[in-house]
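Side project, low priority. Logging it here so it doesn't get lost.
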Amino acid sequence: MTGHEHVRVAVIGSGFGGLGAAVRLRRAGVTDFVVLERRDSVGGTWRDNSYPGCACDVPSHLYSFSFAPNPEWPRNFSGQEHIRAYLERVADTFGLRPHLRFGAEVTEARWDFETLRWEVETTDGTLTADMLVSATGPLSDPKIPDIPGLDGFTGKVFHSARWDHDYDLRDKRVAMIGTGASAIQIVPAIQPVVGRLTVFQRTPPWVMPRMDREISDFERRLHAKVPSTRALRRRMLWLIRELQVGAFTKHPARMGLVEKLAKRHMTKVVKDPELRAKLTPDYRIGCKRILLSNTYYPALVQPNVDVVASGLKEVRGNTLVASDGTETEVDAVIFGTGFHVTDMPIAHRIRGVDGTTLAESWKDGMEALRGSTATGFPNFMTIIGPNTGLGNSSMILIIEAQLNYMIDYLRQLGTLTTAGAGRAALDARPEAVRSWNDRLQERMKRTVWTTGGCDSWYLDAQGRNTTVWPGTTGEFHRVTRQVDLTEYEVLRAGARPAGGTAGADEPVAEATR
């Protein structure tokens, strides 16, 4: 970008959320927008995560846009390279390249109540926008724990999402820190080549079989020539997961049968009772994300693999010390310790009506109206915002629902501007946000994420689940189909907002039951 640029919509991030927003904007006739991307290509988490074995744990035909079906998926669960290639094709097919601004990391965005615009500072220049959409996603900024002595380690250290492909792991003594979704893919991929692999496991995950297979040429040809077969496959995958939601959100006791299947999956491979005890979780399945793998347990029983059933406590030189006192000397440390989910860094860069950052507004926990908008941040939306995550289905379904909300938001703004006295903006009423989130937290009390007996990344520092949606994706589509203006204060150019409070006689919509 050069000089001053103004656009109707500025989108931050070019992963599924950002590219999806761009497609929907163009299809709605909005071409005055930019997609701000800090790196040099699209893909988001599927660009950043390129570690060995990286693949999706949601079936490919469900993990893709409904408006951009792909009959050529090679496997039921496709790998990172195929998903990234799909996103590149989306950018080309829908003519998004002219809207993409690479190397344009947002350093600060400030709301100007005089002009009802966002002033956006990036590493590539400054622009203003009528509406700002954050599609950075919760899995974009890696989290490495503060381990005493780590800065004195003389070997190689990197996070799974920043894989160093120039570093040769062959015959090295490697430590894998963490046993989450990335780690259970990395461990089987590197185990055959490393000299010794030590897995530091703070909490064992529940692991189910991965029903993966190659999609045949016949299936791919059929899906290409008869689109209804592809649509039917997608709908069946969706329906199966919709029917599972009740066990997660209302009847966690029903997960007992699934636990038996997971234990059987483990005992078929892990014969050593001591190792089996280490790998058996003591919490209800589903409390943490259920992981899928046919190769994780076989890798752990190999003679060059050790499992330390304790988290990493400190580093002394090149020796890693676990919380239980176990010491392990290694050449390389790989962190599979997740991301900044409940404390997203982008929130520190967004400043609302009174100069307060979104992070400061969320200091007691993230919350947003319908997972999308926050009080004091007019004409601002988050894609994959608070309480929009899923424990068992495809996030693309949530993203598309929020894109519907975004398009209706813009439509409402256009109507208000045409019918009223000049430019308009919408600010979520605090009563609406509070009502919505109180209802969500009440529903959350009986879910497996709350009652399951685990400490997961779904929970924030206060122990509240501010990440997961406690319902079906169908329900989420219904509650985000359109913007309810009774949940918003209408702002006019030049008039300082009254703080987003509703009048005593103005109704505030209640959160969905």
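Brief comment: The chain has two domains: 5-141+340-492, 150-213+250-335.
Revisit when time allows.
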